[in-house]
Amino acid sequence: MIGIASYGVYVPLYRIKVEEIAKQWGENPANIKSGLLVEEKSVPDLDEDTATMAVEAARAAIRRANLDPKAIGAVYVGSESHPYAVKPTATIVAAAMGAPHLITAADFEFACKAGTAAIQTCMGLVALNKIKYGLAVGADVSQSSPGDALEYSAGAGGAAFVIGQDKIVAEIEEYASFTSDTPDFWRRDLQKYPVHGGRFTGEPAYFRHTIAATEALMERAGLQPTDFDFAVFHQPNGKFPLKAAKTLGFTTAQLEPGLMVTHFGNTYSASSLIGLAATLDMASSSQRILVTSFGSGAGSDAFAFRVTDLIDEVREKAPKVEEFLLSKRYLDYAAYAKHQRKIRM
Amino acid sequence: MASTAKFWREQESRYNLEGTRCSNCGSFFFPPRSLCPKCRRKGTIVPYKFKGTGEVVTYTTVYQAPRNNNRQTPYTLAIIELDEGTRMLSEVICEPAQISTGMRVRAVFRKLGEEGEKGIIYYGTKFVPA
Ligand SMILES: [Zn+2]
To answer: pLDDT value at position A39?
Structure first.
C-alpha cells in the first residue's frame, strides 16, 4: 500500500497581528478578523526563504521516521515563491537533506496546490517501484502588495511528506483532482506581487474546484463525509474552508484539528499540508482524513488518508505543529516590512 | 563573500556540517581535514556528519556591519563548541540580550548571503538557541 512514511513541518518564529497591519492602513481590525477569521500570520526571518523552510521541513520528515536520506529517490518542491526563477529549489533541498545525487528532482508550480501535485507524482513513481521513497514539499513565503487585503493573511511555512510503500503511517486510499482554466489569481513573470481577479476568487475558483474534487474523491472511493474522522481544506482564510465543509456535509469538529490559518495565515503551498500534519499529530490508528488542496488558476487535489498503527512510533520524533503555534515572537509593522523586504534597501 | 566556485566546493560541508573524524584517536574536524595533526600517518580519516548541537563558548554582537555588507544589524557571531568537541564560528540567531556563554544551540538551515539581486544565494548553517 502507498502512503505517507513520514512528515515534517516548519513555520517561522515571527508573527504579526491583524491589529498591527490594520493600524498601518487605518482599517478596523475587528471587521478584518471577523471577515477572514485570521488573528495573526507567520512572517519569515530576514535570512529565511522558501528553500530554507523546505529544508527544515524535509529534515524534520527524515528525522521523524529515522529514514536514511539515501533511500529517497525523488525530491519535488511545490511553491509559488521559489527563490530563483531558474535554479530549482529541489536541488537545494536534496543537497541539504543529504539525498544522493542519483535521484530525480524538480520544482512544481500550481499556486497553493503545488505541494499536493508533488505528492501525486511521488505516488506514481512509488507505484511503479522506480523509487523507494519520494519527498514532496510544499513551502511558501507569500508575497502581497502593501495595503492589499491579502496582506492580512499571506503567511509563510513549509511541510514535507515522504511517500512510499514501506512503514506507512497513513495510507493514501484514493485521490481525485479537478482542474480548469480560471483567472482568479495570477502573477506575471518578473512581477513582484500577485493580482487577484476580485469576484473570481470565491465561487468559480475556490468553491467550485474544492467541492468538485472532494465529491469526485468520495464517489471514487465510495465514501461519505461521515466516513471521515477529520477533514482539511485549503485555508486562504478561515471562512472558505468552513463554508466548503458545510456545503459538502462535513462538520466544524472534523475541521478543527487542521485549521491553522487563524494563527499562521495562509501558508499557500504549505496550507493544506500543514493542516494534514497537524491532524496526523493527533489522529489515531485507522482514522480517516480528507485533504483537499486548492491552487488558483485553478485546481484542487483531494485525498483520502487512512492512519495506520505506525503513527504512534513516529509522531513524537519531530516537532509537532502545536510547537510552532506556541513558539512565536511578535513584530511591529516597521520590523515586518523589513522582514518582507517591502522597504527596498 | 567567497566566490561561487569556492562556495560550491564547500557546500556539502556547510549545508550538513559534514566534517571528518580520525578513527585512530577519535578527534573530530570541522571544516573537514584530510590529515590528523596528532596521529599524522598513523591516523585514519573518515567522513563524519556532526549532530549539530553544541554550546556557545564566546560571542560578539555586531551593531555596525562592515560597508558593502548589506546584512541587517545587529547580529551575533559566536564560537560554538559542537558536542563532538570541535569548535566553529557561526552566526547565532537570537536577540542580543538572549545569548550567553554556555547557552545550548542547535544548527538550522538559513541564507548566509547573496551576491546582490542578480547573483547566487548562499545557503548554509547557522545556530539558534536550543
Ligand atoms: Zn588522530
So the answer is: 97
The residue segments making up the domain with residue B32 are 18-50
CB contact under 8 A, B11 and A45: no
B83 and B107 in a single domain? The answer is yes
How far away is chain A from the Cα of B111, in angstroms, using its nearest Cα? Answer: 5
Q: What is the pLDDT of residues A145-193, one digit of tens each?
A: 888 888 999 999 999 999 999 999 999 999 999 999 998 888 888 788 8
Q: Number of folded domains in chain B?
A: 2
Q: A24 C-alpha vs ligand 1 centroid, how far in Å?
A: 60
Separation of alpha carbons A153 and A196, rounded Å: 14
Using CB atoms, pick whichever of B12, B49, B111 lies closest to residue A95: B12
Q: Can you tell me the distance from the alpha carbon of A67 to that of A137, in angstroms, rounded to the nearest whole number?
A: 16
CA A191 to CA B27: how far, in whole Å? 51
Could you give the domains of chain A? 3-169+318-339 (3.40.47.10), 170-311 (3.40.47.10)
- Read off the pLDDT of each residue in A285-294 and give the average, rounded to a whole number: 98
Q: Rounded CA gap, A211 and A290, in Å? A: 12
Residue B68's pLDDT band (cuts 50, 70, 90): low
Confidence of residue A311 (pLDDT cuts 50, 70, 90): very high
CATH number of the domain that B77 lies in? 2.40.50.840
Instruction: Say yes or no: B42 and B73 in one domain.
Output: no
Whether B98 and B116 share a structural domain: yes
How far is B124 from B122, CA to CA, in rounded Å?
A: 7
Q: Which residues of A touch B49 (CB under 8 A)?
A: 98
- Do B71 and B81 reside in the same domain of the chain? yes
Q: Which of B71, B109, B121 sits opposite A96 (nearest CB)?
A: B109
Mean pLDDT of A39-59: 97
- Residue B97 pLDDT: 93
B10 pLDDT band, cuts 50/70/90, is: confident
Cα A110 to Cα A78, A145, A261: the distances in Å are 7, 20, 20
Q: Do B33 and B62 sit in the same domain of this protein? A: no
Q: Chain A contacts of B65, Cβ < 8 Å?
A: none
Q: Give yes or no: residues B69 and B102 share one domain.
A: yes
**Assigned C-alpha cell, A257:** 484539528
Read off the pLDDT band of B2 (50, 70, 90). Answer: low
